[in-house]
Amino acid sequence: MRTLHHPHGLGRQELQAMASGEGPGKIDDMEFYDARHAFGDWARNKCRFSKDDVALAMNHKDNTNKVTDIYISKDWSIVDEVQNGILNLLKKKATPKQIHKLKATAATKQVA
Question: Looking at CB atoms within 10 Å, which of 72, 78, 102, 106 has the fewest?
Fold first, then answer.
């Protein structure tokens, strides 16, 4: 019977095999935790998966992603893309009603 942990176990086994230099895709001179750090960092920064998805894939139980953050280096290009996306929305496509809603949402979050 497969459980929620079954896919995680398969992923860990494959990472362990690669890190130990066994099987296809082997990576010489890499420890298991090096592979985990690379996995977490690449999943977020290269593949652009959300931190929540990366945490789930790494079987982290912490809902605040503090543990997951240890594995992910800061990629400012993601922040740049988010900010540019909002600026482009405001410059090209946003209606006055959308801009008002965005300002109201921002003001609400600053108060909280």
Answer: 106
Domain encompassing residue 81: 77-111
Cα–Cα nearest to 103, from 86, 81, 80, 82: 86
pTM: predicted TM-score of the whole model, two decimal places: 0.55
Q: Identify whether residues 63 and 20 lie together within a single domain.
A: yes
DSSP states of 10-62: HHHHHHHHHHTT-STT--TT--HHHHHHHHHHHHHHTS---HHHHHHHTT---
What does the pLDDT look like over 61-85, one tens digit per residue?
A: 888 999 999 999 998 998 888 888 8
Regarding whether 49 and 85 lie in a shared domain, the answer is no
What confidence score (pLDDT) does residue 78 get? 87
Q: Are residues 53 and 82 in the same domain?
A: no
Residue range 31-52: mean pLDDT, rounded: 90
